[in-house]
């Protein structure tokens, strides 16, 4: 079974200067015509991919920190478009053909990029993107009869309230770890190491990533089926169980799949983080995708 985060040395990081913000990223020293671009989700950091980076190290690897996250620079406002723009610039700058692997918000950004870069993106694995509403207006007009939408909006608002109150008082990573146990006590019961990682990342994140999400409930929405019409890449859509925390709706995934000429949908009985709960299956899927 794949294990996460047990590394004995610090991995080298670099800076890409986009038009509006500096992007921190990891890259290995492999020369290969194919590169894997790992894009983490909301509140994550590039390090969450460390095990897969090691497992697929025969390829050129790039793993980015999103704007406002970890060691990347900050923006005035955060939404799907402002998150995407500098990562799109980064992808355009790469000389290799690209395989995109994205989780959650990173998966949505991946779709945005593949819809714009044509054949430069050859394959993509999009893990549980936030496709929990088919209509933008259903979110911004607070039509919350749908349980999944309601849960997501509550999550955004709770995070915004908590970090607005607590994060300004943090002076060290230890402060963040102690505080994060109030915000998410369950993660420290089930996986305290991962809880500490999440808290450490939160210490470095821009506070506005939560405030924007709490004040703007449509910040992650995009018309995924329409974007999919411009995608050339062979695509795997990977989702969790909507009753256990998965947020990719079948209705939207099906429409996306029908608009991409080569696309397959995979569902696992997991929550939102398929790769953590089913690491062997996730590894096999990615290996199958790249090898196809």
Structural account:
The chain has 292 residues and is of the alpha/beta class. Helices cover 43% and strands 16% of the residues. The protein contains 13 helices and eight strands. It has helices spanning 50-55, 80-93, 105-117, 136-140, 147-166, 173-183, 185-190, 192-204, 208-215, 224-228, 250-258, 274-277, 279-291; strands at residues 13-17, 22-27, 34-39, 60-64, 97-103, 121-127, 234-239, 263-267. An eight-stranded mixed sheet has the order 1-2-4-3-5-6-7-8, with helices on both faces. Mean pLDDT is 93; it is low at 1-8.
Tell me about the largest β-sheet.
Answer: 8 strands, mixed
SSE pattern, N- to C-terminal: EEEHEHEHEHHHHHHHEHEHH
The residue-averaged pLDDT reads 93
Over the alpha carbons, how many angstroms does the gyration radius reach? 18 Å
Please tally the helical runs, counting DSSP H or I stretches of 4 or more residues.
13
Strand order of the largest sheet: 1-2-4-3-5-6-7-8
Helix content: 40-55%
- CA-to-CA gap between the ends? 23 Å
Shape: globular
